[in-house]
Every structure is written in C-alpha cells, then in structure tokens.
Design brief:
- Residues 24-434 form the Amidase domain.
- The chain contains 14 helices and 13 strands.
- It is an alpha/beta fold.
- The protein has 2 domains: 3-226, Amidase signature (AS) domain (Amidase signature (AS) enzymes); 245-444, Alpha-Beta Complex (Amidase signature (AS) enzymes), CATH 3.90.1300.
- It has an 11-stranded mixed sheet with strand order 1-3-2-4-6-5-12-13-9-7-8, with helices on both faces.
- Strand 12 and strand 13 form a beta hairpin.
- Helix 5 packs parallel to helix 6.
- It is globular.
- 56% of the residues are buried.
C-alpha cells in the first residue's frame, strides 16, 4: 500500500510511531495528486514548496519528541474559499484575480498549529454558489459531476490526493460531493467551527467542516477545528448501537429518490437494527417550507456580500452565478425577514423531534452522480427537477436548522457509483452522529473501496 492510500487514522498512528515520515507521506500524496490532477482536476493551486517545507519541519519536530497530535505531519487540501496568509483565495472566480490573503483564517491557523501539512487549494464552484464544481470530475467516473461546491476537496480525498480536506456547506456543499465521491463529510453544528477568514455565501447558513475517508478520521479533524477548550470528542465505540433510537423519515426524505439509493439506505438501516438500534418512524418538520426558507435566506445574503463587485464588474462572474446574484436584488426585505422567522420555527421543531430519537437517518442525495452537462433529473411521478435542486433538497434542512449532519458511504449503484446516507443529530450532537456512523462502518465497512481508482 502506498502511504497516499492510508486513512488519516492509519497515517497518524504510523507517523506518531515513527514508522512513516511526514516527508515520505507528503511525497506519496503529491505523487498521487500529480497523477490525478490532469484528468480529474481536484486542485485549483498546489503549494509544493510550502508542503515540502512543512513536512520537513514536522519530521524534525517529531524526531525531537515534539509530536503535537493526530494531524501533525498529515497532508491536507483546503477549499479555495478559505484564507491562508500569502496565498490566493480565488474562490473559483475571475473576480478574485490577483488576490492574496493577508492573514490565516481561523481554521487554517488551527490546522497549522496542529502541524498539518497544507498541499494547496481545492476547486470550488464559483464563490461556493453551486452544486457542480465544473472544474473537477467525479473520482469514480470522469464523465460524471464531482458535486459541489466542495467538489475539489471530495475528489482529492477520494483519490488519495489529500489525506483529509476542508470544505464549506451552505446547502449540502460538503455532504453532496462527499456522497457522490464515496467519502465521509461532516457539517458540524452552526457556529461550532469558526468561519473567520472564510469567504461567505450566506451568513445564516454557512458551515466549515472536514471531508475524510472514514468517520473516525472526521472525528480527529473536528477535534482540532473546534480548538482549545472545546468538549472532546469521546472515543468511538466499535459496532454497538444498543439503546440508540434512529428516526427514519416517512415524509420528504424518501420522496423523489432513485430506487437504488433508497434500497441502499434502507438496507443500511436494517443493518443498524442488528447493532442494537431501534428504528422509529418520524415526520419531517415544516417540510413544505424547506426550499422557500433556504432560498429566502441564501439568495439575498449572497447578493448583499457581492453587491459592490456585482455592480462594478458583473461580466467577471460566471453566467450561472451572476443570474443568482442578480435575482437576489429582487427579493424584498420582508421576504428575507419571514425566512428568518421560519428558520427559527423550523429549528425549534427539529429540536422537539430529537426528544423522540437520537439521530435521524436518510439519503444524502436522491441520486448518484449525474453525467457532466446534464441539467435535469426526471422522477417516476412525472416531475422534473434541476440537478442542483435535487442535490440540495435533502441537505438543506440541516443548514436551515444548524444541526450537525454526517454523510457516509453505504453502497454503490449498478454503475458502481457511490451512495451516501446522512445522519443528523441535535445541536452539538456531533458525538452521537459520529458514534452511529463509526459503529456502522466498523461492522459493515463504508460500502465502497477505501480509495477510488486513480
């Protein structure tokens, strides 16, 4: 096995035991990056000199007995909306031509403090305002979309071109590409991970979180991202869910879902009963308002951030993002305020739901990765939906309510494409969603090979 194929947990243990040097690990991951970049395009920019220097520094520190923790010497990718001092934060846009960040974002500073090795910036849909990431192709089929907007981060992790990566999630932008590329993605509780130094899309909905190969890896990264003084993530028990109540929505989450996705998720739920969990049918609070509330928050907030540049240089935006930003100028203030009120009511309703169950489990995305260039999805009930609307539909409730949501792979469709299952918990319920996800993966595996074929 090449070092690039190791999970974060495996690589961290080997580095700590001095069985693997950060220098050799980083060199292996960069070799993999060079192999996949021309075909799949996960990276917007590669900081080779920075990475090699950081790996050498980590190796020296560890050799001198100065091991800092589980991320020390571990190479990672950073979504290109997250600032690193001296590097460009291009956000996938011509608007940011010539940009250089003046300071580290909070998360970049925390990862640097943990001794992690930055490889470079991963591609994003322009300003994180889309679910495709057109610069990047799917890790399992280069004729398919990577998903977005953290598509570059997901593909880097899936192919071994990063041992872990960070993304952002406003309507599924961590979980969608994670599910479509067969990796793990965690959207933490709103506000748990700081967003200082991260280019905003929507202040009310934005989250920062990890993309990894395993649930245990996600727990390690989360611990470093939450910073000193945060509650530690408890050890994850192996394969036991005794006493856990898992809510299975009987509305919304299984509507307009492909048969293969539904079958894989329901099979995973059945397996969870074998681990001691109890399945409980639940409704989906305020489901009919999800799209209106999500758009009522996101669209005007995105336009407010881009107001000056949209007025001065509209031609620098891609057509799909420009039309969304221009649409935001037509949203009345009253509609945004009503969306804010509905957001509060929806959050309260979901919190009441978690008095009945410990987690809610559902599909992450209603279909597997679509072909590049395909714009719509047709469902058996005769309805047609845009690919972007389909991707965001099952993820948006966790953004509106701010609850933690974890996606992990639970199988593949007949074309060999990954299928993801989403686990949602109460606010600050990361320990329980990580426990459930890890218990499932420890007993049954993650449903796809550990690393996609490069």
């Amino acid at each position: 096995m090449h070092p690039a194929d190791l999970t974060l947990t495996e690589a961290s243990a080997a580095v700590r035991a001095r069985e693997l040097s950060p220098v050799d690990l980083t060199a292996s991951v960069i070799d993999r990056l060079d192999a996949v970049q021309p075909r799949l395009g996960p990276y917007a920019a590669v900081a080779r000199d920075v990475a090699h220097a950081a790996a050498a520094r980590a190796a020296s520190e560890i050799a001198a007995g100065g091991h800092r923790g589980p991320l020390h010497g571990i190479p990672f990718g950073l979504k290109d909306v997250i600032d690193v001092a001296g590097l460009a934060t291009a956000a996938g846009s011509r608007v940011r031509a010539g940009h250089r960040a003046s300071a580290d974002s909070a998360v970049a500073a925390r990862l640097a403090g943990a001794g992690a090795v930055l490889l470079g910036k991963t591609h994003t849909h322009e300003f994180a305002y889309g679910l495709i990431t057109p610069q990047t192709r799917n890790a399992w089929d280069d004729g398919r979309i990577a998903g977005g907007s953290s598509g570059g981060s997901a593909v880097a992790v899936a192919t071994g071109a990063a041992t872990f990566a960070l993304g952002t999630d406003t309507g599924g932008s961590i979980r969608v590409p994670a599910a479509l590329n067969g990796v793990v993605g965690l959207k933490p509780t709103y506000g748990l991970v700081p967003r200082r130094g991260v280019t905003p899309l929507s202040w009310s909905l934005d989250h920062v979180g990890p993309l990894t190969r395993t649930v245990a890896d996600a727990a390690l990264v989360l611990q470093e991202l939450t910073g000193p003084g945060s509650a530690p993530v408890p050890p994850l028990p192996e394969g036991d869910l005794t006493g856990l109540r898992i809510g299975v929505p009987d509305t919304y989450y299984f509507d307009r879902v492909s048969p293969e996705v539904e079958a894989a998720v329901r099979a995973a739920l059945d397996r969870m009963t074998g681990l001691g969990a109890t399945l409980v049918a639940v409704g989906t609070p305020m489901a009919r308002y999800v799209q209106a509330v999500h758009w009522g928050l996101m669209v005007p907030e995105a336009t407010a951030y881009h107001e000056a540049t949209l007025r001065a240089s509209p031609e620098l935006y891609g057509p799909d993002v420009r039309v969304l930003l221009e649409a935001g100028t037509t949203v009345p203030a009253g509609d945004h305020l009503r969306a804010r009120r509905a957001q509060r009511l929806m959050r309260e309703a979901w919190i009441r739901l978690f008095a009945q169950v410990d987690v809610v489990a559902a599909p992450t995305v209603p279909m597997t990765a679509t072909e590049v260039g395909r714009s719509t999805v047709s469902w058996p009930d005769g309805t047609t939906e845009s690919v972007s609307d389909a991707c965001v539909r099952l993820c948006a409730p966790a953004n509106i309510t701010g609850i933690p949501a974890l996606t992990l792979p639970v199988g593949q469709d007949s074309a060999g494409l990954p299928i993801g299952m989403q686990l949602m918990g109460p606010p600050l319920g990361e320990p329980v969603v990580l426990r459930v996800g890890h218990a499932y993966a420890a007993r049954y595996g993650d449903g796809v090979p550990a690393v996609a074929a490069a």
